Amino acid sequence: MAIVKNIKTLAAILSMVAWFGVISQFYTSVPAYLAKGRTLVGTLVELFSFFTIQTNILAAICFTAIAVGYSQTAFFKRRGTLTSGAVNISIVALVFNLVLRSTYHPVGLASLSNELVHVITPALFIIYWLAFVPKDNINWKDGFSWLWYPACYLAYILIRGAICGLYPYFFLDTGKYGYPKVALNIGGLLIVFLIMDMLYIFIAKLINRYFGT
């Protein structure tokens, strides 16, 4: 019972970190978008269209669900949900730090919020997954089902981009690169997601084999 209570307390602390990262992103980004002449609704849609924001919100929801322990939030506490969440937030950290970091140089609170959503929350979520999420009953086939989220996200970005001409990430900009090039980029991204899915499943099976009960 004490262990469960301690895990819930830890999850509550982690949820506050994750929510602060998301809220501070909106706090610093909304005025900047409005200053460029964007509408409030357009700004909010734009921010919610970032995979980083969506994935950090899901991480915060998962931590919150674990902390409160309500049965209504069971989906966000499932080992499959948490494992796919770890995969997605790992991709967020990898893509930003390997591809996008050199293109973005925030200062002040914006710099802190940027590190929170791209480094700190991803690291905390991955560590939590490694230490506390049960690893049994995670199967190889799960990796394919976890692709639905990034696939639906990428489809949404293409549809939205075709309508309004805005893309949250430059490598998805069909106006700049054309659909064939972007299709290749998307194919490469989905392969990366699948590889990461399989890597996490492999790690889960390894941990369960040597440390499972």
Topology:
Blueprint: H1 2-35, H2 40-48, H3 51-68, H4 79-100, H5 109-132, H6 142-145, H7 148-164, H8 174-211
Helix pairs in contact: 1-2, 1-3, 1-5, 3-4, 3-5, 4-5, 4-8, 7-8
Describe the fold and architecture:
It is built from 8 helices and no strands. The chain is an all-alpha fold. It starts with a helix and ends with a helix. The model has no long low-confidence stretch (mean pLDDT 93).
Q: By helix and strand content, what is the structural category? A: mainly alpha
The helix fraction, in percent, is: over 70%
* Separate helix tally: 8
Query: Rg, please?
Result: 18 Å
Ends apart, CA distance between termini: 18 Å
Sum up the overall morphology in one term.
Answer: globular
Unreliable stretches: none
Approximately what portion of the residues adopt beta-strand conformation?
Answer: under 5%
Largest sheet, strands/sense/barrel = none
Number of strands: 0
Mean of residue pLDDT values: 93
- Assembly type: single chain
List the helices and strands in order. Answer: HHHHHHHH
